[in-house]
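Need tokens for this chain, all 294 residues.
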Amino acid sequence: MRKITAYILIIVFVLFTLSGCGETAEIEESPSPEPSPSEIPVTASPVSTPLHETAALQRELRAYMKDNLSGRWAVCVEDLVTGENFVLYRDFEEDECFPAASTIKLFVLCSVYDKASKGEFEIGDEYNRMLAEKMITISSNNCANILTKAVGGTGAVTGYIRKNLGFKLSSMNKLIGNEYGGANNLINPAEAMKLLELLYNGEVVDRRSSEEMLGFMLKQEINNKISLGIGEDGQFAHKTGEYFELANHDMGIVYMKGHHDYSICCFSGESKIDEALNNMKEISEIVYNYFETT
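Here are the structure tokens for all 294 residues:
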């Protein structure tokens, strides 16, 4: 009788295990090998519990950058819903800056709205508003220089960048235009991405100011770079910049219908202009397709 009972217990235990009622540890597949840091160094910002991770997107961009780019590059992407972000570099270090070219005008715009919030500049004035809009939409150097002087000069703009935004690397050192030298003003890619995040969240000066600045960026008339890779479900609020082959940039926010909004920045230097333009379009397509399917 004891033997029969023992056999029954053994049979019950086996059936219980095979039925899946007992918990077993799943075996995870090893991730695909990543390119070595010496090929394309990557820095990642802290992630705030993302709903979906961008590892697959990073792998695709790394492969594209390795096979297709020449010169110095930084590509920044942030999911503006989850806060997950990353920067990929080619022949560039995270604490370096590119010549800002006309992307510095975004910092001038922020400084203008900061002065306006303190009653030191009238942004509601029709002429002043025209200056701000044309500085962004058609990238007018003349409008930018008038506004820079109005807020106190290049030092005041850099002071705003340091004190109000907390950025340590980007700076405005000269007025804008070939007569002032086009490579004097500087922008750091990670700081550029952070600026877009702050604008999106309504944290540059205040929400109303942030929304007005983004409104100018949505009216951008120079759309020959990242814009070309964005499909019909996306609206792009952005600012471009170029200075011969030393600087070819585009940075902005893509508002998506039914999907996560995201920011994207492409900074390039020492790259042939036509090649850089095509590269930005193709990088944009990769990022857009990712967000369209998530």
